[in-house]
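Class prep. Write one:
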Amino acid sequence: MTLDLVPLWACILSLAVLMYVLLDGFDLGVGILFFFRCHDEDRDLMVASVAPIWDFNETWLILGGGGLLAVFPLAYAVVIPAVYFPILLMLLGLLFRGVAFEFRDAPTAHKHGWNNAFAFGSLIATFAQGVVLGNFIKGFPVNGRVFAGTSWDWIAPFPLMTGLGLVVGYSLLGTTWLVMKTEGDLQLWARRTARWCLLGLLAFILLVSLWTPLEEPRVAQRWFSFPNLLYFSPVPILTLVLALLLWRGLNKGREVLPFLCAMGLFFLSYTGLIISLWPYVAPPSITLWDAATAPMSQQFLMVGTMFLLPVILLYVFWSYWVFRGKVRADIGYH
């Protein structure tokens, strides 16, 4: 009897996507906040807060994309043509952002131009990721085993709306990160801005939660049929609890709690997404088992992943522990 590794691979790739969203989300959010905080001293401090850990976060993106290609090639063949242009925009945004990050402090650099590249790269990459998410929720037309739509299907109200929603969500992660990592006027500004970002994110969560079941009967059946309604009710309840904790934490001057609550909101939103779409990897027709590669290939890839994944996780925890303090303009982390 062959061991079914498909659920385990689904968990690994889900973990990779979640870790990328949580860890790269706040530093993309810091880049987006460049549009609203224009003083060079503040921008230098914002960049310094993410400088030690920003470039490693893309590792999770590579693991997720590479794993999808290697383990679920049919899903890769269906999804990528549908979101080719958003993915291209995302990669270009990440490219410009990364180059700007390295060159903005060069002795002869035009700092204002590189700051703009950093901000626009962060915004474009975030918006493109949200568009990809919206297309994934909306689903992909398939004829047989081939994508039957066009590469322009992403230009639709729902994916564009989720793109804007992710911009607001990453901005919340960025502001709460600055609340945790900075002091003084910049921290006060981040605290005020985080309140508006929280309200905006809750509005988008509500909009997606209403739009999706109205457009997709299968999602409505998953959430609102009995006893699923009881099983899944903790997700919206905990979302409200975390939102209230985040708001109170901001009002009471807490520093770490708002960031943890913001990450919790993303985790719960991601959980709701998995509940809505399981077991489809290219909804609404291709399941994880339909798209999976041969069992022998899954076993071979699992051997390497079981060595690689713990190393990645250990490095993540170690790096965040080392740079766990406040950041200051004169001495960096302390």
Notes: The chain has one domain: 6-333. The radius of gyration is 20 Å.
